[in-house]
Write a structure and sequence with these properties.
By secondary structure, this protein is an alpha+beta fold. The chain folds into three domains: 63 residues, no CATH class; 101 residues, 2-Layer Sandwich (Tetrahydropterin Synthase, Chain A), CATH 3.30.479.30; 82 residues, no CATH class. It is 55% helix and 23% strand. It is built from eight helices and eight strands. The chain has a three-stranded antiparallel beta sheet with strand order 3-2-5. Helix 3 crosses helix 5 and helix 6 crosses helix 7. The mean pLDDT is 83.
């Protein structure tokens, strides 16, 4: 009789230990435990710590709340100006509602990945190539807003989307290089023309000053001679007053008449 009693006690203890093993969970700080009781979802997910779940009536599923990085594979896209490009991106998201992430979508990571790929194709296709290359923040912001709105019913918050790389066909790269070279040549010619225009204005202003002050041109003439003399050369300069040249010109003009 004692043998049967001892065997029964061992069975009860074993079942009790099995129940405790399947009923006690340790939930980490960055996790939440979603509990199903007889198939019905409990309204509040269990927080971090040691949690008791009445097995087999209740079942607990762990959901991580940490930030997850999603690598969006390269997508073949035709831009609004009919240029074929290949674009890849990276998406950062986290679960903010563990109950929705478990009940509203079968696999929220896979669903977010597929949604990010389709959204990347549709959004980038609305921009021209120059906008994609120069206004990357605008493209990233639109991607983030659309993904965040679409994943909100799943209890997911998309924090940031970044376009990593834009692969352009080789022919288009050569065309862009030619365009950039022509643009730089245009700017150089404009800058050179503006410099010539400003220089001509300054020369005109100087001519007006010299016209009102005849002695100023003599001083400028002597200053030029001084600058020439500073250089170590063998050039011999004979100053010739301009008044003499003017007199000769008048005499020559009178003789020709």
């Amino acid at each position: 009789m004692f043998e049967y009693f001892g065997l029964g006690t061992l069975v009860v203890i074993a079942l009790l230990l099995l129940w405790i093993w399947n009923s006690i969970y340790i939930i980490k700080e960055w996790e939440r435990g979603v509990v199903l009781r007889l198939g019905r979802l409990l309204p509040e997910a269990k927080g971090a710590g040691v949690r008791l779940v009445f097995w087999p009536i209740e079942t607990l599923y762990r959901i991580s709340l940490r930030l997850e990085t999603l690598d969006v594979p390269p997508q073949d896209i035709i831009t609004r100006d009919n240029v074929s490009v290949k674009v890849n991106a990276v998406c950062y998201f986290r679960v903010v509602d563990a109950n929705l992430a478990l009940s509203q979508v079968q696999n929220y990571q896979y669903a977010t990945s597929q949604l990010a790929q389709t959204t990347l194709r549709s959004v980038v296709g609305q921009f021209e190539l120059d906008e994609i290359l120069s206004q990357r923040d605008k493209v990233n912001g639109k991607l983030q807003i659309i993904l965040d709105q679409d994943t909100e019913p799943w209890g997911i918050k998309v924090g940031k989307v970044e376009v990593k790389q834009v692969d352009i066909p080789e022919q288009m790269q050569r065309a862009i290089a030619k365009q950039a070279e022509a643009e730089r040549e245009r700017r150089a010619k404009i800058i050179h023309a503006e410099g010539e225009f400003e220089a001509s204005q300054k020369l005109a202003d100087a001519a007006k000053v010299l016209e009102t002050q005849p002695s100023a041109i003599q001083l400028r003439y002597l200053q030029t001679l001084t600058e020439i003399g500073v250089e170590k050369n063998t050039t011999i300069v004979f100053p010739l007053p301009i008044d003499i040249i003017n007199t000769w010109m008048k005499v020559a003009g009178g003789a020709s008449k």
